[in-house]
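Q: what sequence does this backbone want?
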């Protein structure tokens, strides 16, 4: 069974840092774009950052210069390094990946992780 598992969330003070990880596992043939989304209470889910298989990146304006997305293709893992965190970054963070798997081959499908909570508060 293909799954994405996030880790690294928690409580941090304003101005602090956190690093989120998300590992894909299962019968995966290829991974295209990987991304991080977040959903704050009462708000819609929004894109934070994404990264293509060729390592091209894209960021939401609200996190540019403070967050960095990266990936390790050998480990099927995507990371989100977050610096200078603000209270408005409090949300559940979800990773997703567009993957070709034994179930979707030759096509691909978007898979989602279960989410990890990030809370920024003093």
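A:
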């Amino acid at each position: 069974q293909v799954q994405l598992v996030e880790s690294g969330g928690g409580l941090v003070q304003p101005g602090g840092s956190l690093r989120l990880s998300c590992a894909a596992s299962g019968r995966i043939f290829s991974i295209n774009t990987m991304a991080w989304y977040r959903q704050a209470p009462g708000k819609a889910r929004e894109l934070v950052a994404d990264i293509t298989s060729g390592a091209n990146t894209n960021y939401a304006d609200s996190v540019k210069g403070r967050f960095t997305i990266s990936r390790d293709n050998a480990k099927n893992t995507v990371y989100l390094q977050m610096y200078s965190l603000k209270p408005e970054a409090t949300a559940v963070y979800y990773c997703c990946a567009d993957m070709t798997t034994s179930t979707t081959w030759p096509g691909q499908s978007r898979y989602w992780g279960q989410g990890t909570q990030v809370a920024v508060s003093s």
